[in-house]
Inverse folding.
């Protein structure tokens, strides 16, 4: 008697599209076993109980093909091996969230986003490919926003779905506190020092919050009007940051008092003999004194 069979077979599971293809390959391989010389009428062994390895698990099937008759025997051993694919490994970065003001400019945000997105990667499996992520862009530095990346990796034996987000929190709007316009009379203040104090308190009401590191300009160069001259001080400036600007203006006015003016009688000179009594003189003097007046 004599037998024949196929060569040992070894291949990766990735060589097949599905289990059916592997089963067909295994069936063809099993079909190559045969009794080539029958001796005293030997019967070929039944190989129908052999099945292909599970595609995604891999494994080895060993076939011992042997026959014997009255006088002789024959045997061969062959293996059919499927190497399972490496585990599919899909990585994605953790969700990231930043305040826009942590960055110097849009380029800095773009660089951080590019670093984040390169952490998506795929390895193992059979033919797993990372989707094209080049269409994703970082949020705008001034408006902020969330970029969500979802993708599915489909491979021969495994599928994986991963998601992550990149968030930029937009800066707060610029909030400028501006004191109202002030109009006062010089006469409302005891002296220049009191007026200066009022002016400084008014200047201190200018303030800025929010924005992209917006700064209040130096207002220390402004001074109150001169008490007796009056006048208007206009404080006007532009608040700017990376994302916008705002015009600011207010006034502090001191109305100077009107000039003062007086009038009086002309100088008076007479002889005492012009009066009959002291009462007459007193009356004349009182009339003369009554002619003094503040006219402005």
């Amino acid at each position: 008697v004599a037998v024949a069979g196929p060569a040992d077979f070894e291949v990766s599971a990735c060589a097949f599209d599905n289990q059916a293809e592997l089963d067909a390959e295994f069936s063809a391989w099993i079909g190559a076993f045969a009794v080539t010389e029958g001796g005293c009428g030997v019967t070929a062994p039944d190989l129908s109980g052999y099945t292909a390895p599970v595609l995604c698990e891999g494994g080895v099937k060993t076939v011992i093909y042997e026959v014997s008759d009255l006088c002789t025997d024959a045997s061969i051993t062959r293996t059919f091996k499927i190497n399972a694919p490496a585990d599919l490994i899909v990585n994605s970065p953790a969700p990231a969230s930043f305040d826009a003001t942590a960055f110097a400019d849009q380029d800095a945000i773009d660089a951080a986003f590019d670093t984040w997105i390169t952490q998506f990667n795929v390895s193992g499996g059979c033919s797993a490919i990372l989707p094209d992520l080049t269409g994703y862009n970082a949020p705008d530095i001034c408006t902020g926003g969330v970029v969500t990346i979802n993708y599915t990796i489909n491979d021969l034996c495994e599928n994986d779905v991963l998601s992550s987000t990149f968030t930029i929190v937009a800066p707060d709007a610029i909030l400028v506190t501006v004191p109202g316009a002030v109009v006062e009379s010089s006469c409302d203040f005891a002296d220049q020092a009191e007026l200066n104090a009022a002016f400084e308190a008014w200047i201190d009401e200018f303030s800025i919050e929010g924005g992209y590191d917006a700064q209040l300009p130096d207002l220390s160069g402004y001074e109150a009007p001169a008490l007796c001259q009056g006048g208007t001080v206009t404080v006007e400036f532009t608040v700017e940051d990376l994302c916008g600007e705002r015009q600011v203006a207010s006034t502090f006015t001191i109305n100077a008092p009107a000039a003062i003016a007086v009038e009086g009688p002309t100088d008076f000179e007479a002889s005492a003999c012009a009066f009959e009594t002291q009462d007459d003189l007193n009356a004349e003097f009182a009339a003369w004194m009554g002619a003094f007046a503040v006219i402005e």
